[in-house]
Design a protein that fits this description.
single chain, about 475 residues, alpha/beta, Immunoglobulin-like, Cytochrome Bc1 Complex, Chain D, domain 2, six-stranded mixed β-sheet, 11 helices, about 20% helix
């Protein structure tokens, strides 16, 4: 088109340019006021490239805190494999990277991620990956559907900082997630999060097995239970005891701790709580806004949270889903062991244990009881079984197997059976956070003092010491009375 050189043409051209400039300024101002403000790094130039260091729970990769936008290569292999779900119980897990949860991915806001998903040739099923940190169809699921023996690749820009779940989204989606296909990706704000002393990775998930909780052997997936949302196991990091006992998280008094916590689901929300700790800071749902001084935080299925706290006292702290039967009956229990010096001002422990007389009643001398008769084993065993179910089975389980890494077993227990007092002292006095070894496994023994009569204690011990492979003489009431008086 021929340019106009007339004064009129020049004025018209100038007016058009001024109007266009004004319009662009107006659009920019509107966007900056909160309309469609672009992410700060969505057009940043990529400088450099590296392969991501992926870690498996409970470990977290070291933050790079690199000031420039980078290209990050992420390599993940899907592996279908049989692994331990609980003591004596195995399950065919479908995994990202050979573990449940899958590896922890750590990148920075604005980075370009190139993800390579490989489906092991020995697998039987197609798989893909849906990352909640992706802005795009299916979170990457459409781009990564991969049959066994193949690798799919796609790339995406991480535009929003936060902690996000990733999972398999191949049909049936719920089944793939229920078999263990989930993990976390942390998108750091540019420059990183404030430094802490220790970081850990925990992820809750449910398992729906044909057999009941504790049923031995290789357990298949039960679709009916999954649809009804009735799991047999609710666990952290893929198995009962995976983050407790010998596998417990470890820190020192004074450490500032950051937990990256995810909930793979597929169904249940988690009421996440660390017994005896208060979260200084909670990034609820893995977002950017912080809440403070929180004891329990809700994590939805497919969601995450970042929680921080400072260890002020030594001891063993239980990490639970506070839907509490999940913790003590289905496996949703982890542990943090904190070493260091106690501060009695912060926490005194028990100061005294005195006789309580309701209404100010004055204690009187009771007449001496007549000698209790010796009862046969069968009678004490029967009564002891009922008492055990009411007082002890919620922790030690009706099978006597306890909870791996958390509650010691009573079945074939060398710790119990070799005690010269038949175990009477344990029921009379409890165990106050003492390290104990049962059948070669280490436990941090914690058991409250139970309000039981001498006769009840004799009955329970007779039952326990003659069940689940244990064999012993009957425990009589007079033995308990003698121990109590001593």
């Amino acid at each position: 088109m021929k340019k106009s050189s007339s004064p009129k043409g020049i004025l018209q051209t100038t007016a058009v340019l001024l109007l266009a400039g004004f319009a662009m300024s107006l659009i920019t101002a509107c966007n900056q006021a909160g309309g469609t403000k672009p992410a700060p790094n969505d057009t940043a130039t990529v400088i450099g490239e590296y392969t991501a260091d992926l870690t498996h729970a409970p470990f977290v990769p070291v933050a790079r805190n690199y000031p420039k936008t980078e290209k990050v290569i992420v390599n993940i292999e899907v592996v279908e494999k049989v692994m331990k779900l609980s003591d004596g119980v195995t399950y065919t897990f479908w995994t990202f990277g050979g573990t449940v949860p899958g590896p922890f991915i750590r990148v920075q806001e604005g980075d370009e991620v190139e993800l390579h998903l490989s489906n092991n040739p020995n697998n039987k099923m197609p798989h893909n990956i849906d990352l909640h940190a992706v802005n795009g169809p299916g979170g990457g699921a459409e781009a990564t559907l991969t049959v066994p023996g193949h690798t799919s690749t796609f790339s995406f820009r991480v535009l929003n900082p936060g902690l996000y779940v990733y999972h398999c989204a191949t049909a049936p989606v719920g089944m793939h997630i229920a078999n263990g296909m989930y993990g976390l990706i942390q998108v750091e704000p540019r420059g990183g999060l404030p430094k802490v002393d220790k970081e850990f990775y925990l992820m809750q998930g449910e398992f729906y097995t044909k057999g009941k909780n504790g049923a031995p052997g290789l357990q298949p997936f039960d679709m009916d239970k999954a649809i009804k949302e009735q799991p047999e196991y609710v666990v952290f990091n893929g198995a009962v005891g995976a983050a407790s006992g010998n596998n417990a998280l470890r820190a020192n008094v004074g450490d500032h701790i950051r937990l990256y916590v995810g909930n793979g689901g597929p169904n249940l929300a988690s009421s996440f709580h660390v017994i005896g700790q208060i979260f200084d800071t909670v990034f609820q749902e893995g977002g950017s806004e912080a809440n403070h001084n929180v004891a329990t935080t809700l994590i939805p299925a497919g969601g995450a949270a970042i929680v921080e706290f400072t260890c002020k006292e030594p001891g063993t702290y239980s990490i639970v889903d506070h839907s509490i039967f999940r913790a003590f009956n289905q496996g949703a229990l982890a542990q943090l062991v904190v070493a260091g010096n106690a501060d009695k001002v912060v926490y005194s422990g028990k100061i005294s244990d005195e006789l309580y007389q309701p209404g100010g009643a004055v204690a009187t001398q009771e007449p001496a009881d007549p000698a209790a008769p010796d009862l046969p084993l069968a009678e004490r065993f029967k009564q002891g079984q009922q008492l055990f179910e009411m007082n002890c089975s919620s922790c030690h389980q009706s099978t006597g197997m306890g909870m791996p890494g958390a509650i010691p077993p009573l079945a074939k227990s060398d710790f119990l059976m070799k005690r010269s007092d038949e175990g009477i002292g344990i029921l009379l006095n409890g165990i106050n956070n003492e390290p104990i070894i049962v059948n070669g496994n280490h436990f941090q023994g914690v058991m409250p003092k139970l309000s039981l009569s001498d006769d009840q204690i004799a009955n329970i011990l007779t039952y326990v010491r003659n069940s689940w492979g244990n064999k012993s003489l009957v425990v009589q009431e007079k033995q308990v009375k003698k121990a109590r008086n001593q």
